[in-house]
Structure formats: C-alpha cells, structure tokens
Fold each of these.
Amino acid sequence: MKDLKDRAEKLRLDAIDCDLIAKLATDDDKRKAFEYLAEQYRAMAEAIEHVMAQRIDAQVRVMARPPDRSKRSP
C-alpha cells in the first residue's frame, strides 16, 4: 500500500511541476500541453487513491465480519 501512496504523491508533485511550467511557458501550445499533462497526472493520482480506499474498505469489512461458527470441531 505504501508503494501506491508514494506513486500517488509523485504524480501530484509532477502535476504541480507541470502547472508551474505551463505558467512560465511563452508558447501557447506548450502551455496547453503542460496544463493537459498536469490534469492527467492529477487524474492518475486520484485513480490510485480511489484504489487504495477500496482496498482499505475491503480490509475493514473482512476484519469486521463475525467469525464463521459453522466450521466448529465436534
């Protein structure tokens, strides 16, 4: 899970870098390209965070489930 968290954080930092480059770009096409890249990096980070949240929810449901009493030894 830590790998996913690190990857999402890296993507968010890359998005910030692209935003900065877009703001500094003098060429309109380059500005638009870096704005697009920033959006894509943020979308990928959100997707990773969504997967992480789903995994955590699934783990919580498994841990909260009552023990299966049907498999008792006689």
Amino acid sequence: YEAGPTGFSLARTLKLASLPVAVIAPSKTLRPAAVDSKSDRLDCRKLAEFAAKDLLTEVAIPTEQEEADRQVVRLRNQLRDKLVRIKQQIKSFLLQHNIPYPIGLDRWTLKSVAKLKRLRLCPQKRFALNMLIDQLEYFQKQIKDVDAQLRKIFKEKHHDRQMKILESHPGIGPITARQYRSEVFSPERFEKSTQLTRYLGLCPRVSQSGQKRVEGRLMKAGQIALRANLVESAWAWIRVDSDAKETFRRLLSNTGEPNKAITAMARRLAVHLWKMLCDDKMYQKAA
C-alpha cells in the first residue's frame, strides 16, 4: 500500500502475521502523462501491475520503537516552528502599533520579555500582548520538557553508542545528532551515498542532454528541519576544521555562491556520519 497518514502500524501487523507487505513511496510511483480516471480500484490495479514488473520504490518500515523515538524528535521541531511564529506575531504587533522593541528582544532575553510585560498600553492592547506572551512562555516550557525527554530517550542503550559516534564529528551537537539518528534509522539499508543524500534532500536535481549537464535546486525530500540543521552544522564544522574550511573555499571558488558551497559541505557531512555509523567508528580527521 502507499505511504500515507495511516503510518506503518498496518505493515507491522501484517509482518507479524507472516504476510508479505511493502509500503510504497507515492512520489516515486509512475503517473500517466495524460489525465486519466482515478479510483481506488484503478489505483490498486496499477500498483499490482507495477509490483509485478518491479517498478515500485519501497519505503523502509521502522520498528515501533524507532517510530516512537522519531515522533518525539519531530514534536520538538513542530513546537519550535510554533514558537518562531509567536515571536514573529509579537514583533508584528509592536511594529503595527509603533511600539519600540525593548533592548535584547532580538535575542529574546528574559529581561526583554519582562520589559514587554511592563509596557504601558491601553487595556485592549495590553490584553492582546499578554495573550501572545503567554503563548510564548507556554511553548518555551513545552520545548524544555521535550528536551528533557529527548535526553532521557537518547541515553538509552540502543542509542548511546550511536550518539557518541555522531557527536564525535566536529560541528555536530546533540540536537542534530538526535535528528540524524531518528531519521536515518538502520543506516546500513543505504547501499551508496547517493541514496542517502537523495533521502535527506541534499541531492541536486540533474538535467542532462548530450554533453550539457545542469545541476538545479535540491530535490524536495526528507525532513526540512534535519536538512537545515545539517547546513548549520556544516558552518560550525568549517569554523573548527582547517581541512573542511579549505574544501569549502575551493567549492566557493567553483560555484561563486556561499549557499551552494555550504550545502555541498552539508552533503559531505551527512555522508561522513553515515559511514561512521555503518563502520561503528568515531570521527577520524584523516578519513
């Protein structure tokens, strides 16, 4: 069946019953060029025909434990996105009503938030701003609670060794390590690095005709939060590793664009982490 909102519970149930099951990636399923009729019956028939011809791309089915751990990691990403939106709403509120930003609000320090609470406003504006501040503090507390739970989860035996391996690489902190560990579960399932980078959305779309080859934007795949954190980790990596910095400069001279060069470094970083996990080895600079 195609991957969707029902998740992997059905697949695991069928496996326990010793029945053959495969979860198919909808984005990788062949589609007719012309608009055609669509129904569940027709879709099932097409899936059966494609399966018989080995034309379907299967999705890796995580264990219940792997999926549960990944859910907590993704929950933190969702809460962080909500926190960012609340901060934007507060700044928009201040801008709309011509209220100067308190000193430190760009870093959202405790003093700056306390100054927001002491601003002299009319009752209606005070009420609206207080509601936004309450949401800000609520999501900050939620993220702290999730972080505490994540620290507990990833100290368990089945994560401890892999987390130490990931964090041994320069530029990798606990947040990126947890995301990578939960999203790239069973790293040995990738046979080559290009499969990994396509899975993470760090592989550029290639358009080649004859002798002309053009590499375009990144393919839309994988978790956006993990991809963004890998890019941030790549910036940290080149700051502390002279060899990585030299590679970045070479890529920058070839591309002329810092964003492309750092994305290439993030792609290298992702492959390093994959190889380290597969080989069960800590980071070695010579490698």
